[in-house]
Amino acid sequence: MPSWGMACPVCGQRKGRRSCPALGQIICTVCCATTRLVEIDCPDDCPHLIAAREHPAAEVKRQQERDVARLVPSISHLTERQHQLFFLFHTAVARHQPDGFARLVDEDVGQAASAVASTLETASRGVIYEHTPPSMPAQRVATELTALLSEIRTHGGMVNDGEAAIVLRAIEQGARDVQKASGGDETSYLSLMARLLRVRRAAQPAAQETPAKSQSALILP
After folding, report:
1. Furthest CA-CA distance within the chain
2. How far apart are CA 14 and CA 10, in angstroms?
3. What is the DSSP secondary structure assignment for residue 200, as one 8-state letter?
4. Could you give the 3-state DSSP secondary structure of residue 26?
5. N- to C-terminal Cα distance for the chain?
6. Which one, of 172, 49, 187, lies nearest residue 120 by Cα?
7. What CA–CA distance (Å, rounded) separates 156 from 42?
8. pLDDT for residue 11 is more than 90
9. At what angle do helices 106-124 and 188-203 cross, to 10 degrees?
10. CA within 13 Å, CB half, 6
């Protein structure tokens, strides 16, 4: 039986202070706040999740505002449908698990988005040629982005090559700009998008969350 005051089973360092219905364990307040809806699949009736939705901490709100401000330059030109596709692509990136000891960084995401966008742009001109990113992690991310686009279309999502390429170019620009502004943090863009995905998921009804079948319906006209 989980006990109050024992070491948090998530971080193994801080003392457990909150009962987590998803894990059936007593976890610390820091892990509750930082892994909620990202690593922990919180049920909608979790009292801590409800409280966070209704009364987000001031620092959390300020962080959200900073994140949005940094992302706006790269996505302000996107339509509503393209915004939805933007976040769908990033859901695939967030699920990506690098092989072995490989570490996914912002540059990999930018390279993957650039390569897939180039492939789609080439196809729209009637030429079939697959552009390949230089790094192996980027190649794997590119494969997953392409697979997600195919899955969306399989389930009825109407996304043409040009539209998808516009969104992927926005991801490429965002990864480059945010990483450059971070002063050397190689995963600043990935961290920013993880926070925004968590906020987006918390704001959406359960019916609009994963899996991909329900996600694909988001970009239907």
Report:
1. 64
2. 9
3. H
4. strand
5. 50
6. 172
7. 29
8. no
9. 80
10. 10
**For residue 6, what are its two tokens?**
């024992």
CA distance 42 to 21: 7
For 53-108, what is each residue's pLDDT tens digit?
776 666 667 777 888 899 999 999 999 999 999 999 999 999 888 887 778 999 99
Residue 193, C-beta contacts closer than 8 angstroms, at least 6 positions apart:
90, 93, 94
pLDDT tens-place string over residues 103-160? 899 999 999 999 999 999 999 888 989 999 999 999 999 999 999 999 999 988 888 9
Angle at 44 between CA 39 and CA 46, to 5 degrees: 80
How far apart, in whole angstroms, are the C-alpha atoms of residue 141 and residue 95?
Answer: 10
Residue 191: enclosing H or E segment and its boundaries?
A: helix 188-203
Gyration radius of the chain over CA positions: 19
- 0.70 surpassed by pTM: no
Cα 56–Cα 59–Cα 63 angle in degrees, nearest 5: 100
Q: Is the pLDDT of residue 208 over 80?
A: no
Q: Write the DSSP string, 168-185.
A: HHHHHHHHHHHHHHTTS-
